[in-house]
Design a protein that fits this description.
The chain is mainly β and about 190 residues long. The protein has one domain. The protein has 1 helix and 15 strands. The strands form 5 sheets. The protein has a 5-stranded antiparallel sheet, with no helix packed on it. Strands 3-13-10-6 form a 4-stranded antiparallel sheet. The protein has a two-stranded parallel ribbon with strand order 4-11. A hairpin with a 2-residue loop joins strand 1 and strand 2. It is globular and about 40 Å long.
Length: about 190
């Protein structure tokens, strides 16, 4: 089995960047390992009212775009180098998550899709980042011991694709078209 991630960029229906292999950053890898290695979640609450919980990556995710074309990806990066808009970047107008069941062919996908409406972003795309609440506790068990608390890691970048690493050429945003980015996480037998 292997785990891989890919980005795709579209302007309206035109694919301007076909699915391209991404780099997982330290936070992204810790998040995946933490989820896989977590043997149990212990919620303790007095009075029978359970208001505690664990916030996992899909509870708060975003894809942001940046215009930097010279800074290579480093595993310790947590934000885009030069986001489009105020940091962490201009949020997409629409977001969806879709899942493909791989029980028939041995390939499972989770696709995070972010769409910016025409005119909502301008400039060039030189870097793309997936942000999420990556749990970084590598223990086999997560404990929450108060009714009002959540285990809520910070939202940080866990995956990045960039021009500086020769993963794609800069994309000029056509402000008359929507921009869609798909980030596909693929699990497969090999």
């Amino acid at each position: 089995m292997y785990l891989d991630g890919f980005y795709e960029v579209r302007q309206d229906d035109e694919i301007v960047l076909p699915y391209t292999h991404n780099k997982f950053l330290d936070n992204g890898m810790r998040g995946f390992i933490s989820i896989i290695a977590c043997g149990s979640v212990c919620l303790t609450c007095a009075g029978g009212s359970y208001t505690s919980g664990i916030m996992l990556p899909a509870s708060d995710w975003n894809i942001y775009l940046g215009n930097d074309t010279t800074t290579p990806t480093l595993p310790t990066m947590t934000i885009l180098t030069s986001p489009i808009g105020n940091s962490p970047g201009t949020a997409p107008n629409n977001k969806t998550i879709t899942v493909k069941d791989g029980s028939l062919n041995g390939v499972w996908n989770v696709v995070f899709t972010a769409v910016w409406n025409p005119g909502s972003i301008t400039g060039i795309i030189g870097e793309i980042g997936l942000y999420a609440r990556w749990p970084t506790n590598l223990n086999y068990k997560w404990d929450v011991s108060t009714c009002s608390s959540f285990v809520t890691p910070a939202t940080t970048m866990g995956s990045r694709l960039c021009v500086a690493d020769n993963e794609f050429t800069a994309i000029t945003i056509d402000s008359s078209k929507s921009v869609a980015v798909n980030w596909k996480l693929q699990f497969a037998f090999e």
